[in-house]
Write a structure and sequence with these properties.
This protein is an alpha/beta fold and about 475 residues long. The protein is about 35% helix and about 20% strand. The chain has an 8-stranded mixed beta sheet with strand order 6-5-14-15-16-13-18-17, sandwiched between helices. The chain has a 5-stranded parallel beta sheet with strand order 8-2-1-12-19, with helices on one face. It comes from Psilocybe cyanescens.
Length: about 475
Amino acid sequence: MAFFSLGNEVNAETCLKIVIIGGGLAGLAIAYALKRAGHDVAIVEKRNGKLQSMGITQSPPNMTKILYRWGLKPFLDRMAGKCGSLILRNGRKEELVGIMQFDEDFLSDQLVEYLFIRTQALEDVLQKMVDDERVDVVSANVIDLQTSSETATLTIDDGRVLSADFVICADGYDSTFKHLVTEVEDERSASSTKAHLAITFILPLEVVVREEALPGLIMDPKNWNVWVGPGFILHANFSDGGKYVSVTMTSDYTKNVLPGDQTWDSRPLEYWGIDLEMFEPRVKKLLSLTKSASSRVFMTRPISDNLVCKNSKVVLVGDAAHPILPGGNQHIGLAIEEAETLRCIFSRIRHRNQIPDFLAAYEEIRQPRTAYVIQYESGMHTMLKMPDGLEQDERNAMLKQVMADGDWDHMDEDNFRAIFGEELNQYSHDATEQVEDWWTKWGAVISKNVEQREADHTKCNISYSGEVTFSQRSLL
């Protein structure tokens, strides 16, 4: 079954050999996109067997429109839930902060929906797409990665050696080979010591329905329920046509981080010492309904200035590229944007000599976008996790004023856009159009460069250490 539905899809004139380290959501999306662009793609994934994801993936309009272009609208119509309204509550008190309707007026500029998808369902369909495209998947662990001006060479734990025109690191927040791009050997020691706990679990709807303390939660499956409080944010959403309720909580973590805590694993909530008495009754009840949850600690990581190494052989995508916490609006959306960006760029390649130029284009297009989103989400999380006190009371009063009526007909649009305007700008981002605009502006320069290189039999060496942009470098 061919999923892709974009009418102007083209294949590259030169087929590149690309190896992707990591077979999670980001790796699968990148593999599918580059295979559709006409390249020979392989995935190296160290997991033995399937890791069952327990959470919900938020698909804001900028992500949804790409999935639609990939032919996934029938799947999303069947498996995803549409967000009808955001209900924001105080997580310490039984207090409604405000309601924001995601109606036709709100989404008029976006053209597509804000969706919630069970993460495992999305990973399963991406796996099927990769399988249908006959992408080679190697179950192994990469123990060494070496690069030269000509190639990238990977050694895997069964002794085999793989070569590629370039390697894409999609191996997550704790990427093994990220330092080849960032040139920071031990990012954990160089980063902030601030720790964050992420917890996610799924409850069958019939379990939630039986609880009298949760009547407001089951009124409408389109509700995006969010509770905020000092140091924490909790989301509860429906999935699979209303069969399940998925809960995700991120919170500041001040206890000692033990060995293994920075790895996803199923643990009882008691392991983390969570005091259920600090939450309002509905949050307390939701958390008490699970015996164990998928959880881990994340240490704050700096935003990387680079997404591509100096010799254009290693590329960062997904959590390896953008250290963003689970539960954020754009956590998976950024990875899907990166996949579409690489597809659109590398569907145009004519010669291997263009690889440095094309990867420079990827970095120039994506790095400002990811840095902007990460900084915004970090600021939003800080604002929503304010400690109890006057500042939190003023925040709640402001949000109540903006979200008091819950619809655009009565909302103070100026005040709303002052608070949430940047988020709307993120939703309107179109990764496909970004590449189209870039190519319209600089495609002729790229073509002229490769023709000159072919004539001179020379190779391109582009330095990423300076402050000039790719566009400027191409014209030098």
